[in-house]
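Problem statement: downstream parser choked on a complex file, so we are re-checking the raw output for the biotin run. The parser issue turned out to be on our end (a line-ending mismatch), but while we're here, posting the original submission so the record is complete.
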Amino acid sequence: MSGKPEMPGTEDGKGGAAASPCAPSVGDALPPAAPWPADTGCTVLARVDSTMAEATRRLPTLAGPEWILALRQEAGRGRQGRGWADPPGNFAATHVFRPAQGLPERALFSFVAALALDNALRDLGVPAARLSIKWPNDVLLDGGKLAGILLEGAGDHLSIGFGVNLAHAPDPADLVPGLHPPVALAAATGVRVPPEDLLARLAPAFARWRAQLDDYGFGPIRTAWLARAARLGAEIRARTAREEWRGTFETIDATGALVLKTAQGTRTIPAADVFF
Ligand SMILES: O=C(O)CCCC[C@@H]1SC[C@@H]2NC(=O)N[C@@H]21
């Protein structure tokens, strides 16, 4: 299949069908989106608890890779068991697929996903210089958190959830204190992007970076990610459940782990929350 997918399973909660969100927008002032990835399905839900939960429910009947976009998400999940607040107009989608990579390499999809989202936002007219990526996969706009990405494994499948503050930043009262401050695309840039338009750019971008990983390994992705990294060479803090380190963000290693030069020596940190 090339170009547009077959009519995806668009659901409005009442069994009605709507126009495909998987096709590029028509009449857009921007260059057209790249073709929708071959053999990849797409479902748009009017509302859902969490697109991650929905991906898990659909696993037994999945015919191939699938994108699930929700126009309203009422119980969004964030990293480390946190919730994810999702005001109307924001982007909430999960891509579920069966990676060729084994379990240890699946964390590399964090970087694939962040690069794809960065590309998709740039395609939609967000200036590259205002975007950056906070290790491992938060997409920042002017240094504020624009988007979060969540990876969950289920058997031989991987679900990657993307939450993007397209229209609104969440109410600070809904956030865990001390987290990176959120920002909304519309307020910060005046760029208004319907969730369906972001999906039309994100899905092909993800497919391109995924093919890079499959064909060439992590090397090119690591290089591209480092070119977009926030605070590379600067001081950051990395916090796990038990420890916090402060040091210079030197690089990421061949497994994607954060390499931090601290006063006590170089630390290689596979998973943590990063603060500036
Ligand atoms: O904590 C983070 O930074 C990750 C947030 C991921 C949120 C997205 S929204 C779409 C998908 N569905 C969920 O329930 N969570 C992810």
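For whoever reads this later: The chain has two domains: 41-228, 235-275.
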